[in-house]
Amino acid sequence: MIGEFDIIPATADFLPALVELDRACFSPPWTSKMWEAELLGNPFSHVLVAVRRERAEGGDGNLIGFHCFWVVFEELRLMRLAVRESKRGQGVGRALATVALEWGRQRGVSRAMLEVRSSNEAAQRLYQGLGFFSTGIRRGYYSNPTEDAVLMEMNPLALPVGIPPRQVEGGWQRDNEGR
User: Fold this and answer.
1) What pLDDT is stored for residue 14 in this prediction?
2) Is residue 9 part of a domain?
3) What single-letter DSSP state applies at residue 160?
4) Any domain includes 149
5) Is the distance from CB of 51 to CB of 35 less than 8 angstroms?
6) What are the CA-CA distances from residue 91 to residues 58, 88, 129 (Å)?
7) Is residue 173 part of a domain?
8) pLDDT, tens digit, for every residue of 25-45?
9) Active-site residues: which are they?
10) What average pLDDT does the chain have?
C-alpha cells in the first residue's frame, strides 16, 4: 500500500473530501467552516492529505487519509488524523504522522503532543509505536459519546526508527523503497 499513495499539503480543493472523511471517522465531526478555518485562516494549522497515486476523475475518492496538526512555537500538536476505513492497517496513518513529525523537526519543534479517545486502542498503539508515551488522562474530554482522553507526548521530538523520509513537492512522503 505505501507505494500507492502520496502525501501532499491540502488545499481548499480538498475541503469537501476532508469533511466527508471526517464525518465517517469522528464523532462529533468538524464542520465545513471548521475545516475551512484550518485550511485558510489558522496560521498555526497545517493539513496533509494522503491521496491515491493513480488518481481517478472526480477527486473525492482519491483522498485516503488526512492529518491536521498545529505548530505553535516549539510544540507540534497533532489535532486530527484519519484514514479511510478500507485503507486502515496499511501504513497510511503512520506515514501521515511521520511526515508531520519530520516537518516539525525541520522547523525546530522540540516536542509533540496529542489527545486520543481512551477506547481508541489502535491509535494509541500507532502513537506508541512512533515513540509517544502516555502522560495522563483528561476525564470526560470527548462527547458523543462522553469519554476520557489519553494525553500523549513525545519529548524530545524524535523521528520514528525506520525508513527516512524524502522530500517531495510541497511536503514529505515515504515510498515503498524507503527513499
Assistant:
1) 95
2) yes
3) P
4) yes
5) no
6) 25, 7, 12
7) no
8) 999 999 999 999 999 999 999
9) 115, 127
10) 87
Residue 12 lies in a domain: yes
SS3 46: strand
On the 0-12 / 13-18 / 19+ scale of CB atoms within 10 A, 24 is exposed
Q: 6: domain range?
A: 2-157
- What pLDDT digit, counting tens, does each position of 141-172 carry? 999 999 999 999 999 998 776 544 444 334 44
Cell of 134: 502516555
Beta-sheet strands, E only, within 62-156 = 63-72, 75-83, 111-117, 133-142, 147-154
Domain CATH code at residue 68: 3.40.630.30
- 9 to each of 15, 17, 132, how far by Cα in Å? 12, 14, 24
Number of separate domains in the chain: 1
Q: 3-class SS at 155? A: coil
Closest CA to 110 of 74, 143, 140: 74
> Which one is predicted more confidently, 178 or 113?
113
Residue 81's nearest CA partner among 127, 39, 118, 36 is 127
* Strand, coil or helix: 12: helix
Q: How far apart are CA 72 and CA 109, in angstroms?
A: 9
The enclosing H or E element of 91 equals none
**What pTM was computed for the model?**
0.86
